[in-house]
Amino acid sequence: ILVTLVLRNLLKWLAISLWVLCLPAFRDPMAMERANLLNMAKLSIKGLIESALSFGRTLDSDYPPLQQFFVVMEHCLKHGLKVKKSFLGYNKSLWGPLEMVEKLCPEAGEIAASVRDLPGLKTPLGRARAWLRLALMQKKLADYLRLLITRKDILSEFYENSAVMLEEEGAVIVGLLVGLNVIDANLCVKGEDLDTQVGVIDFSMYLKNDIDDDYRSEERNGQISAILDQKNYVEELNRQLNSTVQGLQGRVESLEKSNSKLIEELAIAKNNIIKLQEENHQLRTENSVILMKAQQRLEVLLSLDTYKQSRQGLDEMYNEARRQLKEECQLRQDVENELVVQVSMKQEMEMAMKLLEKDIHEKQDTLIGLRHQLDEVKAINVEMYQKIQKNDMIARLEEKTNQITATMKQLEQSDKDLLSQTRTLAMSFVKCASTDTEHQYKLVKDISF
User: Domain named RUN: which ranges (predicted)?
Assistant: First the structure.
């Protein structure tokens, strides 16, 4: 398709160029220069396209037809360029009009920035040459120059009125540049000396004999047939792609419709979510109020339960205290009765103690009397022993004396036993009385408390 467009454009612009050459204005020197530059541009562009198609790969900076193309383009852009004054003298600069493309097309700003950042470029001419090479690599050279030639007011500041860029030849050359979009170029601008290159057109590349023309025409016909076959294949592929594109467009339309429906449903869902959030907030508020009231009621119920439990506990404590009081009263009554019994027993014990003391005193008196009698008997016995000194009488007296002595010992022993029993009984009675008194005092004190 691109090759067909290129050939159509070449034929179209060739017819226009012939029409331009047939005009009477060719007698003007500037018009002749424009015609010559147009013919050279045609030959250069045509040769570059044919050689690039036969070459079959990406072009680089050392490719001769590509170098000649840049030389021809440089001459075309320099034609009719105004001379501008500067501190160093008068000069002609291509960089001025090419730099204005950045203002007409923002996409060209990247190329202009890249050209300004190149470290090896020092002259405006070197920057212009670098700009042409970068625009060709981007396949935007025809588009940028077409924008430039449409602004006559801007070009008039840089070119004379009869310059190529301001006349119809410039439009023809820009149209021919569209065919260069079929080739791929990989040009190394960095490191290349673009400031000092001398742009000389090599006409030997365009002067050919008849034999070469016949051979080239046959070769060109073969290339054209191959290109036509490729064109048919590309057209068939294009029809398939168009059907695929139409199917995809139908899917895109259906997806857009479904997307619009989904957007509407999403908006409805968002509104429902907002409403549900508001209802949720309202329900949470009501829930918090209900929860607060429930907590208050629960606190009241808990206080009532606590009061009931405390009252029940107090009743139980009261009943327990009342039962203990009854038990203590009964115990007190029992203690008082026992105290009465103890008091009576104490009185009896005191009476017994007195009787025992009286008996002891009587026995002691009897013992004293017996001792006196013993002494008297001893004295009598002595007297009798001295007087009588008879054995039998002495034996009897001794036997009587022994009996009295044994009787006295028995009385003393019984007296001692009775005295110890009396003392033990008195001590036990005293201890029992003191213990009962303390216990009765504690009971009376607890009951009164």
Answer: 60-192
Cα angle, residue 180 at apex, residues 29 and 45 outer, rounded to 5°: 35
Of 56, 71, 98, residue with least CA distance to 197: 71
Please say if the pLDDT value at position 154 is more than 80. yes
Secondary structure class of 210 (helix, strand, coil): helix
Closest CA to 135 of 93, 192, 174, 80: 174
Q: How far apart are CA 73 and CA 45, in angstroms?
A: 10
Per-residue pLDDT reduced to its tens digit, 204-213:
776 654 445 5
pTM: 0.44
Report angle CA 126, 96, 188 to the nearest 5 degrees. 30
Task: For CA atoms 340, 342, 343, 349, give the dihedral sign.
Answer: positive
Whether 189 and 133 have beta carbons less than 8 Å apart is answered as yes
Chain segment 410-435, per-residue pLDDT in tens: 777 776 777 677 667 666 655 655 55
* Beta carbons of 68 and 197 less than 8 angstroms apart: no
Task: Supply φ then ψ for residue 85, to 5 degrees.
Answer: -85, 145
**Separation of alpha carbons 242 and 57, rounded Å:** 29
| Cα-based distances in Å from 187 to 104, 111, 230, 415 | 25, 14, 28, 158
> Is the confidence at residue 222, as pLDDT, over 80?
no
User: Residues 236-246: pLDDT tens digits?
Assistant: 777 787 788 88
CA distance 196 to 194: 6
64-78 vs 124-137: helix crossing angle, rounded to 10: 120
